[in-house]
UniProtKB/TrEMBL annotation:
The chain crosses the membrane at residues 16-37, 97-123, 135-154, 160-189, 209-230, 250-269, 276-295, 307-333, 345-364, 370-389. It comes from the Bacteria. It is a multi-pass membrane protein. This is DUF2029 domain-containing protein. GO terms for cellular component: plasma membrane. It comes from Paraburkholderia ginsengiterrae.
């Protein structure tokens, strides 16, 4: 059965499609970068647009103090000098992420962007290589061409780093739980993506990894508090509810780029409270399914994949560029296919999931008034759970 999965991924047709898709993405990135930076064409998509916020925050923190990053008065002029935008883009991140981006403020914007993207690409690529290396070169080529990575590069977002940290933690967990805990702690830069990790570790009785993650997370938070002062955390806690109200609950322009069940409900016309109810009806079963798999003695690849998919489903707010995380469950399921073959339905769901970041990106670009990504995530979780409960050899 393992041979069948590897053979399918190594088939010339699959390799050809992967190379074509990767080539298209590289050409799109190159043309966008040349138009925007080379010819100063502000009508072109800006490669690294969201990194403008990161770099601006680093500069503001260095020049005016960390609490100033939550102020449009200080952030706005730096952002507008780099990126012609209709409105001020706020800094909605905790001081732990500010601690990570501060060094980039010491570089020019261009140098900082290249360094930031280079680190993210290297970490993400190394993580994926480790996961799929036993599935053959075809699987690795397929994951290199995964559109979620290119979209994260286009936007200049941190999703390559957070996905690399999550994937690294899952890869290391069976053999090096202390190092896995350290990787988990990196998610302190975007802590909402680590919300289910303690649940999974407790269910699996991974006490060493849990302790390591807690200590390292507290250390990162403590360093940020010492470096920036208590008032920065107070400013963040004050700003976050307002950001949630304006951008998440009532931000119609963001809902088309939010591949969550909450955004889908809001786009469907439901009021805020009803949208939260619909979101909870999906998030809670997803979390329970993930916990159930981590309690049971099922194949680790399936538990890892379920944790990532459930993590995405329990978010009321994340953006299309965070779908770089989808590479993890796809890669883990492909690795699991070495043991138990994928059926046609499994392959179809994986193919749709693989294309999902591109579909979500263009849905945002063209203001599509519907969100289908949550349905795809639910389908992927169903595939994972079904594979966990189906006896080996029955596929």
């Amino acid at each position: 059965m393992a041979t069948t999965a590897v053979a399918r991924l190594s088939a010339p047709r699959v390799r050809f499609y992967a190379v074509v898709f990767l080539t298209i993405q590289c050409i799109y990135l190159a043309i966008s970068a040349i138009r925007y930076y080379g010819f100063a064409d502000r009508a072109a998509p800006m490669v690294g647009a969201d990194f403008v916020i990161f770099w601006s925050a680093a500069r503001v923190a260095l020049e005016h103090g960390a609490p100033a990053v939550f102020s449009a008065h200080w952030m706005g002029p730096i952002e507008s000098a780099l990126w012609r935008h209709d409105s001020f883009a706020p800094w909605p991140y905790p001081p732990t992420f500010l601690l990570a981006v501060i060094p980039f403020g010491l570089l020019s914007f261009g140098g900082a962007l290249l360094a930031f993207l280079g680190i993210g690409i290297a970490a993400y690529g190394a993580m994926l290589s480790r996961i799929v290396r036993e599935a053959g070169s075809g699987a690795f080529l397929l994951m290199v061409a995964f559109p979620g990575a290119a979209i994260a590069i286009v936007t200049g977002q941190n999703s390559l780093l957070t996905a690399a940290a999550a994937g690294g933690a899952l890869v290391l967990l069976p053999s090096s739980p202390l190092l896995a805990g350290a990787c988990i702690a990196v998610l302190a830069i975007k802590p909402q993506f680590g919300v289910l990790v303690p649940v999974a570790l407790i269910c699996a009785r991974q006490w060493r990894a849990l302790l390591s993650a807690a200590l390292c997370s507290f250390a990162i938070a403590g360093v940020s508090a010492v470096a920036f002062g208590r008032e920065t955390w107070v400013a963040f806690a004050t700003f976050l509810p307002e950001f949630n109200r304006v951008a998440v609950e009532h931000g119609r322009e963001l809902w088309v780029g939010m591949p969550t069940m909450f955004a889908a409900a809001r786009l469907a016309g439901l009021p805020v409270r009803a949208a939260y109810v619909v979101y909870a009806m999906v998030a809670l079963p997803a979390a329970i399914a993930m916990a159930w798999l981590w309690v049971r003695d099922v194949r680790f690849e399936l538990r890892a994949a379920a944790l990532v998919v459930a993590t995405l489903l329990v978010q009321p707010y994340f953006m299309y560029y965070d779908l770089a995380w989808l590479a993890l469950p796809i890669a883990f399921v492909l690795r699991d296919a070495e043991r138990v073959a994928l059926n046609r339905a499994d392959w179809l769901v994986l193919a749709v999931a693989w294309l999902t970041p591109a579909a979500a990106y263009f849905a945002f670009r063209f203001d599509a008034p519907v969100q289908v990504t949550p349905v795809i995530l639910i389908g992927l979780l169903v595939v994972i759970v079904r594979r966990a409960v189906t006896p080996r050899g029955v596929e």
